[in-house]
């Protein structure tokens, strides 16, 4: 339908796009590669714009849940000691458990 399903933005693992002359892999037209990189640069500028960022300084013992499919997130430089632990949860399982512990008004918003 022309819409997007998901955006994954990680410049650290971006590989160059390949031009495919036989149409089997990569993009078949050079202008599509140029258009991709123009769009990628525009999106990158938005992602790195300080006006678009929300910064949260966590305190010891704080837990933060981030939906990787809904929020672009990163960490900034840090000096000193810190201990971080991460895990991945199935969205369906998490939401099923959350529904057991929230009231009806909040459930309708999810």
UniProtKB/TrEMBL annotation:
Gene Ontology terms for molecular function: oxidoreductase activity
Residues in TauD/TfdA-like domain copies: 34-88
Pathway this chain belongs to: Amine and polyamine biosynthesis; carnitine biosynthesis
A biological process from GO: carnitine biosynthetic process
Co-factor(s): L-ascorbate
Keyword Cell division: no
One family name in Pfam for this protein: TauD
GO cellular component, one term: mitochondrion
PANTHER family assigned to the protein according to its UniProt record, in alphabetical order: GAMMA-BUTYROBETAINE HYDROXYLASE-RELATED, TRIMETHYLLYSINE DIOXYGENASE, MITOCHONDRIAL
Listed name of the protein: TauD/TfdA-like domain-containing protein
Lineage, uppermost ranks: Eukaryota, Metazoa, Ecdysozoa, Nematoda, Chromadorea
